[in-house]
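@channel anyone free to eyeball this complex?
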Amino acid sequence: MTADALDVVNAMTVDVEDYFQVSAFDRVVSRASWGERESRVVGNTQRLLELFDQSGVRATFFVLGWVADRAPELVRQIAAAGHAIACHGYNHQLLYTLTPKQFREDVREAKRALEQIAGCPVVGYRAPSYSVTSSTLWALDILIEEGYLYDASIFPVHHDRYGIPDAARHRHMMKRPAGALLEIPASTVRLGGVNLPIAGGGYFRLLPYAWTRWGIRHVNRVEREPVIFYLHPWEIDPGQPRLPVGRAARMRHYGGIARTADRLQRLLGDFRFDSIESALNLRLYLAA
Ligand SMILES: [Zn+2]
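replying in thread with the prediction:
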């Protein structure tokens, strides 16, 4: 690794949710059953905390309100270790399945729960499955009205469940009718006029590690921009109960899970990471 890639500090982010709460399982896991299922989010998140601690990395944890209310000690543990607490909504519903009123209640409830538990302001938001699309941009106005300062929910790619393929690829202020919001999109590389995802989730588990490494280096060296990396606690848990889903969902959820903790460890050694708040100098950015 040469110094020119190393001097860019990337952002490490975690969406804190349990394995049964992912959108791909909506059809086989009812919300009513969440409370009765074996929960593994605490142990898995603590394992991530250990990995980050070993590498001296701080991250931004987008915590689901539903999880925070049931595992408040976990939220306090994350904050006490110096990581940033942000919001992943309360009930993990895709934005395009909600009315604006329902969305407002969801993000208000989640913010209230997280702030009460963590004892600090919660100003960042990431939508379930990056579901801020061109049809749900109204959600950004509600986030502004509810006191959020940044959003990290736009994925500038083509995908069946999310994405705004022509959205700006790096952080930028979004001017909305309700005011301004800092948008921090998921990271991509642009090749042949198409944006390709490079930094996290299923792309990190399923594609060769070399793809992620090349992509982050490219963005750091050529574009001089930080990458926003994301993962979920369940992605390092090969022991989670297997749910009866179709082939595509099975592949996306379970593919590569056994090797992901090792990969993450390697990634943490190959690049510099910090929370969104520190890596992107958010205090300065938002004060401007
Ligand atoms: Zn999620």
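from a first look: The chain has twelve helices and eleven strands.
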